[in-house]
Write a structure and sequence with these properties.
- The chain has about 290 residues and is mostly helical.
- The chain has a single domain (about 45-285), classed as Orthogonal Bundle (MetI-like fold).
- It is built from 13 helices and no strands.
- The chain has helices at about 1-10, 10-20, 30-45, 45-50, 80-120, 120-135, 140-150, 155-180, 185-190, 195-205, 210-230, 245-250, 260-285.
- It starts with a helix and ends with a helix.
- About 35% of the residues are buried.
């Protein structure tokens, strides 16, 4: 009887492997989120195929036209094709949102790991810097930085990096405080491995998952920030298409041409929904049971 129970019960290693290889396609939120993300990325990448119009070309003879077979979403107050602006605007805004996530991810994770691992002066310096930044509203701080630096992609990258790294630092520091007390870290220290190798080879792979999950939500926040800056006139300068500027310019025509502001606003919501579902799905996939 004991042997039969022992044979039917999985070992710890077998249970861990079962969790690790849990199929992603059985997580509905992840599947739906990935499907939406692939569709959005496909529309943006195939913009030259999906529309014959230049998103920056004005035609004052065709201003504020309603949706038709020639112009799927109509034209704006300058005669530009709204469908073309939407697709090419997705290219610009999503590219900036993703790139603006990478540098804070790297810097914040690095500072957080070093802070949690070494403690002492390193931890005090990093955490004081974090406390200074989190004392201010994130959006107000980013808008202030961009206002000082001037509109443009470079200013947005700098402003978001100066503010967003703190979230990753706090996440990775908390993970490090737990990980450095684990037996595999203590064994690595006893074996005489260098701190660089212990952090990079052993601790980082076991602590970075939470930062990656948060990064999907961070892209959503970056996109909202980019759209907000565009709405305020601090985003990507014209003539480059931008969803935030489309929303601002179209609000004067809501009663007659509602699609000018509504469509880019709906696009932001759909992208945010897709990335949020991916984040929730990744959290379920990587959750330690």
């Amino acid at each position: 009887m004991t042997q039969a129970v022992r044979a039917s019960a999985p070992t710890l290693g077998e249970e861990t492997r079962a969790i690790a290889v849990r199929p992603w396609y059985r997580i509905p939120t992840l599947v739906i989120g990935l499907g939406l993300a692939v569709a959005i990325a496909g529309l943006a990448l195939l913009a030259p195929v999906l529309t014959p119009y230049n998103p920056t070309m004005q035609n004052l003879n065709q201003i504020l036209l309603p949706p038709s077979s020639a112009h799927l979403l109509g034209t704006d107050q300058l005669g530009k094709d709204v469908w073309a602006e939407l697709l090419y605007g997705a290219r610009v805004d999503l590219q900036i949102a993703f790139i603006a996530m990478l540098l804070p991810l790297v810097l914040g994770t690095t500072f957080g790991l070093l802070s949690g691992y070494f403690g002492g002066v390193v931890d005090a310096v990093v955490m004081r810097a974090v406390e200074v930044i989190v004392a201010f509203p994130v959006y107000v701080l980013i808008i202030a930085f961009v206002f000082v630096l001037g509109p443009g992609a470079t200013s947005i990258y700098i402003a978001i990096t100066l503010v967003s790294w703190v979230s990753y630092a706090r996440i990775s520091r908390g993970e490090m405080l737990v990980a450095k007390t684990q037996e595999y870290v203590l064994a690595a220290r006893s074996a005489g491995l260098s701190n660089v190798r212990i952090i990079g080879r052993h601790i980082l792979p076991n602590t970075v998952t939470q930062s990656i999950v948060f990064a999907t939500s961070d892209v959503v926040l970056n996109l909202l920030m980019i759209v907000t800056l565009g709405y305020l006139g601090l985003g990507i300068p014209p003539p480059s298409p931008d969803w935030g500027r489309m929303i601002y310019q179209g609000q004067s025509f809501l009663t007659t041409n509602w699609q000018l502001s509504t469509i880019p606003g709906v696009a932001v919501v759909i992208v945010g929904l897709a990335l949020s579902l991916i984040g929730d799905g990744l959290a379920d996939l990587l959750r330690r049971e």
